[in-house]
Amino acid sequence: MKNIKEITPKELGALKAITFDIDGVIIPTGTELRENVDGTELYMKSKQLSRQFLENLKELKKYLKINFSSGRNLLYLKSLVNEIFDESVFLQAENGNLNWFGGEVTHPSYSVSYFQKLKLIREQIKKMIAQGDKRIRGFEPKMFILTLHSDQMEEIPNLVREVDPEGELYCLWTNEGYDVGSKTMSKGRGIEKLAQHLHIHPKEIMTTGNNYNDAEMLQVGTGVTVQPDRVKAEYFIEYQPGQLGGEVLTEFLLEYYRRREGKT
Ligand SMILES: [Mg+2]
After folding, report:
1. What is the value of pTM for the model shown?
2. What is the rounded CA–CA span in Å between residue 58 and residue 71?
3. Which end of the chain has the least Cβ crowding within 10 Å, N or C?
4. Which of 233, 181, 173, 237 is nearest to 203 (CA)?
């Protein structure tokens, strides 16, 4: 892996778009979620994009298309970026499953048996909650993947293996729980779809990430990892404690564009 400072002006000049992962990249990690036993009450608390970052994105939009790819749901992504949302902004939710490109929302087609598997896993976990397992806090509302908020616990990947002996599902630790979904779709596949939509090469999209669900998209695009000890990419970026890697990367890119335009 190379430090992002080593990227050449030629490589920077070739970029057409940038994809931001959200949690741990442009927003501090730590979403709180609590659901009651019968699922009739849900409490969720997360954070907003910083004012400076939003202003920087407005400037960055002059040079790059801006894409956000997250495990979170589409409504959350939309509300997060409403202030800057227009035809040059793209959203990819639920680990590449839901795409919002140019006013159209698309998603892959899944078999009934896929949804049955997710339902079975959910029911088994609900039984554990009903039995008083305090390590499990609840489910985040999603359409195509199952997102559980819990401690890290072997029972969850074991349960997924039990319900899915065919190995069609992934079960990824997210730092606050698990994402369970189809291996046929990933954030990386999502980047390929965005590249097709924009008629560009996936490497013309800079991608960012900090976690296991970002591994594919960091390889498919021109990847910049903000957590190189966890997930690899062509480039890594250094930042101070209390800073966010995605924000530091945006400043770095803006410096390049300002210099190119002779503004500094
Ligand atoms: Mg993340």
Report:
1. 0.95
2. 24
3. C
4. 233
The domain of 68 spans: 2-108+186-260
Distance 76 CA to ligand 1 centre (A): 14
Token pair listed for 136: 């499990």
User: Tell me, what CATH number does 151's domain have?
Assistant: 3.30.1360
Cα of 262 vs centre of ligand 1, distance in Å, is 34
Q: How far is the CA of 175 from the centre of ligand 1 (A)?
A: 9
Same domain, 132 and 16: no
Neighbours of 247 (CB within 10 A): 21
Q: What are phi and psi of 210, to 5 degrees?
A: -140, 5
Which residue, among 169, 215, 172, 159, has the nearest Cα to 191 in the 3D structure?
Answer: 215
- Tell me: the pLDDT tens digits for 77-127? 999 999 999 999 999 999 999 999 999 999 999 999 999 999 999 999 999
The rounded radius of gyration (Å) of the Cα atoms in the chain is: 19
Domain end call among 182, 214, 229 = 182
